[in-house]
Amino acid sequence: MNLQARHLITMLFLVCPAVGMAMGAGCAVRQDSATLMPRSPSSQVHTEATRPRVLAPGSIQTQRPDSEVEWNAPFELRPPAPTTKAILLVHGLGDSPWSFVDVAPTLVEQGYVVRTLLLRGHGTHPADLIGVRLEDWQWQVREQITMLQRDFPDVWLGGFSTGANLVLEHALEDTRIRGLLLFSPALRSNELFDWVTPWLVRLRPWLLSPETHPLQSPLRYHIVPTNGLAQFYRSSVAVRKRLKAQTFDRPAVIILAQHDSVVDVRYVYRIFERRFTHADSRLIWYGNPPPGSTSSSRVLVRPDALPQERISQFSHMSILFSPQNPLYGRDGSERICFNGQTDGDTAACQAGETVWYSDFDYREQGKIHARLTYNPHFDWQSQVIQDVLAVCGGVAWIMGASQDLPPSGNQWLQPVP
Q1: 285 close to 260: Cβ distance less than 8 angstroms
Q2: How far apart are CA 318 and CA 258, in angstroms?
Q3: pLDDT (tens digit, 9 = 90+) per residue, 379-400?
Q4: H or E segment at 357?
Q5: What is the pTM of this model?
């Protein structure tokens, strides 16, 4: 997103007069609302409806179409025994339900039915985001939540990045939601001029040329059209507006990386301290303790610089994946070299040379950095989530009683000093 942000700043100075004229004339530069997807009566229908789109000509990136369907289509996992508990997981901009391939089984182990969805415009080709509106995504999320609530009395929501915005906005108005898991929630971008993207949608459909930049891999989009960025911005505005008016008083786990290149993580940290009021909520912070933070049993810190693994810093996406992931793990087959490096370093990365790992646009003399795509602390993180779910899924929480989390027995479970 940072590279697109540079083009956004350039475009701001080029088109500001035109935007100003449009605003002065009372004519907002926006797209008509896109047609909503047909209503699906069940999760199975939603899953089957996505398969033809994923398999459409131009969408398949490899010679393994069945694998690409698996990587991009929504899925549902169920525990072996009957349960009253379920959780909906919503992916971020440019991603797919496969973002939760490692998170989902850990939740099933806790007795949750795990359901995912594929947001409109995803899993096919980045250009399919051109006609999408935030309202389409909001409608999809509401529909899936409604279906879950018909079958399960205890429903949690989880989301990554833009998906976290969508589920948090819904949960703030729906008191039946039991709690939240928010991975790199993009409540506010760290880009100064993100507000201009809705005005650039028609003036500049792509901030980065799709002819000269890598568009996508079989797993995710590398760049998105301006409209995708505009709807991401609108999702952050919508959830911030709700947070100004109310607090979230149910349990939540929020997970942040200090050097996230997309999210203003210090803003999210402050929101957690002030607006997430439940005593059993936890914020996991990868990096150095946030400046000015007070000692809190609710905030847990682990380092993100791990030279023994050639990791300089964690990335926006890395928190989601296990080191054992076959595609994104330590020995995974997928390496993201499109990472804000020089052309020479990018070519060396693609040629298979030894690299270090970081978020987008981090550079250090004498080192080539690919994107970090896994979380060395994944098992510990999963235990923190399971501890919150175990306490807050019990009768005491449902009745409104307050109690502390039991000791985890993990020496790394430490509050911010």
Answers
A1: no
A2: 12
A3: 999 999 999 998 875 433 333 3
A4: strand 356-358
A5: 0.82
